[in-house]
Design goal:
The complex is a heterodimer of chains A (469) and B (467).
Chain A lengths: L24 H10 L4 H16 L23 E2 L21 E6 L2 E7 L1 H5 L3 E4 H7 L1 H8 L10 H9 L2 E7 L9 E7 L4 E11 L4 E10 L15 E11 L4 E8 L5 E11 L4 E8 L4 E10 L5 E10 L4 E10 L5 E10 L4 E10 L7 E10 L5 E10 L6 E8 L4 H9 L4 H17 L5 H20 L9
Parallel strand pairs in A: 1-7, 2-6, 5-7, 6-8, 7-9, 8-10, 9-11, 10-12, 11-13, 12-14, 13-15, 14-16, 15-17, 16-18, 17-19, 18-20
Antiparallel strand pairs in A: 2-3, 4-5
Chain B lengths: L11 H4 L9 E2 L6 H10 L4 H16 L21 E2 L13 H10 L1 H7 L3 E6 L2 E7 L1 H6 L2 E4 H7 L1 H7 L10 H9 L4 E5 L9 E6 L10 E6 L4 E9 L7 E11 L4 E9 L4 E11 L4 E8 L4 E4 L2 E4 L5 E10 L4 E10 L5 E10 L4 E10 L7 E10 L5 E10 L5 E10 L2 H9 L4 H12 L1 H4 L4 H15 L5
Parallel strand pairs in B: 3-7, 6-8, 7-9, 8-10, 9-11, 10-12, 11-13, 12-14, 12-15, 13-16, 14-17, 15-17, 16-18, 17-19, 18-20, 19-21, 20-22
Antiparallel strand pairs in B: 1-2, 3-4, 5-6
Classes of the chains: A alpha/beta (469), B alpha/beta (467).
Chain lengths: 469, 467
Amino acid sequence: MTVASPRPRPARRVATDLPFSFADRGLAKALAAERSEPDWLRAERIAALEAFEALPLEPNQLYTTYLDLRNAELMTARPYLKTASVPNAIASTKLPDGVAGLIDLREDGVAGLVLEPAAVAAGVILETFGQALARDPDGLRTQLEGGAGLPDDDKLAALVRGFWSQGVRLQIPAGVRLERPIVIRWAAGMPDRALIGRTIITVGDGADASIVEELTASGPAIACAAGETVPQALLAGTLEVTLGRDAKLAVASLQELPAGTIAFQHRHAVIGEGASLHWALAQLGSRLVRSRVDNRLEGDRSSVEQVEIVFGGEDQLFDLTSYTRHIGRDTTGNLLSKGALLDRARSFMKGMIVIDRSAVGTDSFLGEFGMNLSKATRSVAIPSLEIDQPDCRRAAHASSVGPIDESQLFYLESRGIPPDEARKFIVLGFLEPVVARVPLASAQDRLRVLLEAKWDAGIGAGAGNDAAA
Amino acid sequence: MTATREIVTDQREQFAFHDDIAYLRETKRGLTRATVEEISGFKEEPDWMLQYRLRAYEHFLKRPIPTWTDGLDKIDFDKIVYYRKPSEREEKSWDDVPEQIKATFERLGIPEAERKFLAGVGAQYDSEVVYHSVKEELTKLGVVFMGTDQALKEYPEIFRRHFGTVVPAEDNKFSALNAAVWSGGSFVYVPKGVEVPLPLQAYFRINGENTGQFERTLIVVDEGAKVHYIEGCTAPIYATESLHVAVVEVVALPGSKVRYTTIQNWSNDVYNLVTKRAHAYENSTVEWIDANTGSRKTVKFPAIYLRGEGATADIISVAVAGKGQHQDTGAKAVHLAPNTRSRIVSKSVSKDGGRASYRGHLKVSPGATNVVASVRCDALMLDDISRSDTYPYIDIQEDDTSMTHEATVGKVSAEQVFYLMSRGLTENEATNLIVQGFLEVFTKELPMEYAIEFNRLVKLEMEGSLG
């Protein structure tokens, strides 16, 4: 049924070749010039470009054999030079139910920005980098210069540092408690378009907030003539978080980018004394996701909980790295990654826990679990530990990969549930830990719908039935 | 409490000696194409082996030094003597072994070991097998146990059929080096259906400053046969680097059972870089029982490729890393066929600034259905200047694999030490006992004499780590 494409294929790249070509000095300068950026920011972009050029694609020698960018084909993709940093019609942006604030960004600029009056009164600031440059240039400079909020050994982090076209800055002052979440929405997926953005969040001492990050399509799906392929899009984004003393932050992320999108993600958190951070990350969309999370438990008694799920299908590749460094005393790290794969999907889960000599009394657990639902899938788990301090409450990791548990299936069937339905329950139940942690009812519902739709599509294509066959 | 307890004495000097040997032949320091040709010439090898060595040498030059583990760039390949021959030919009986060498082995306890329960002894003295005995009953059974050099001459057919098939010269930089300059090692062939009743043993040691040991071991176990091979080593302590680069190949043909036990106790100046791999065919069982207590740096991941349906792999890997040591050890199980099973158990102890790393690879390839695999790694750290790492790689490409992996890192519990001390043990003894208990999963797999020796080694390693 399929006919060989008449279009000449692009030159075959090896797994580690850079799949894009826009990152050069000219673009860095043009971005700075187009925005009339101050000298320090222009210099910062150039410094980042130099770091980008010098760094290897995979900074960790442990993981170099699990690097594959061949799913990405972005040689013609470019970011917009000029973007609107302030929406034209802020007044018209409605605040959705149950939300304290919303910022809506797309390839060409900010589509909406609104914050509830109570939050504004409490001193919460939600703004674009453009607004921050005008209002608080010194504060922004401290945050951006030298790339302090990003890992310094990472090529793709340096890419974002040098070539961001949009930025979001959220500041929760000390002692402020937001009852409802703030939604940060990045919409991408326009063919041949790169959206490179940063989000910097500061949570003051004793403050308490929650964020829902939505990574979604910027437009309707694009159809194409038979034999043609739609050019891919890029979303390269960061989430740079600093938590003050006894601060609390919950971040839920729902990644449902279109199938032709490549996503590079960096999440970097510095967690202060007694502070706690909760990540709930759901990865569903994109053709290729290359993600890295860095948790730095600097303060004594600080803690992080990270729950990440992947539900992959077709030819998707999820390349997920997570570094957690215990530095303070009596810190806690609880990390859980789960992947369910259909069709020919692949997931590389690379987790690294480092316990520094200073980190006496650490409790650290890393779990990586996979469910291969079809024969052509591939699950890679590399849960690593590097430990310099044995005086800990716990330092352990566990991993398992297995098919759907026959005894669970038997139990559900004995209760009168048809086999296909039972399988669906088990797989969705396997991924439930993230759904339950999304702090916004509407986003939670949406995630459930997406997971279910993905399961139904996978089953429709005949995957997932191998176990029964 | 008035009774003075016997303090553990350091018995290291028992193993640390150096005899002045007149080497009959040796190559110049350093490695060139001429060195390789010279070694092959000394051995009067067939041309195919010379060509094989030369190809491997070229490959060795091409490959970069691995950087995923640190410190290998400190090896000065030009300082090493790649071949030394202490005596002219293989000795058939103990009486024919030169007195000086015999005295060395007396100190290592080999003759007793042989008398007591070992079926055969292949003792490697520097780069050549100088002593070899195979009990008559084994010869009658058709079991071949001899030096690898001799096997190349006497069993060319079976040798050539298997040599380099499990670990190709091109596998890694050090397998290429071994293939270029290999000398000595053991060759074992067990014919169809033969069960070797007693373990076969080879005793290695390095003697001679900067002498390389590049032994090559090839074990072929035919259908339905069964054998247990034991390798242990001690070495004198010298100030400058020594290099040990070995290759071990095991071919477990259908229905066979092979156990390979190693107690590695090189002196703390040796770089011990070993490629060990087995091919397990239908319904065979391969077991690596591997302990590393010595060396400055060991890089060794005993591997089993499960090639035939129903094959079983069992790997127990133990490491003790003390001052200045890095034990970069682990295990690999590669499932290539359906209904195969693997089990990996790793235990490591780090102390006095030593570093113990577990590096493992578990792979289930497409087509290897119904695999059951488990990995368990536990690490014990005795102080906070030491380091423990765990780097497991798990790569599953089938949909019905059942794989579990668990790892924990901890310290000796103060409660346990307190309890044992309340029973009259010193702190040293208590810790020692706890460490021995931690490593028991390994010790209990050893023949009794080896278990005793291993516990003594651990005790020795523990010496000086406690006040």
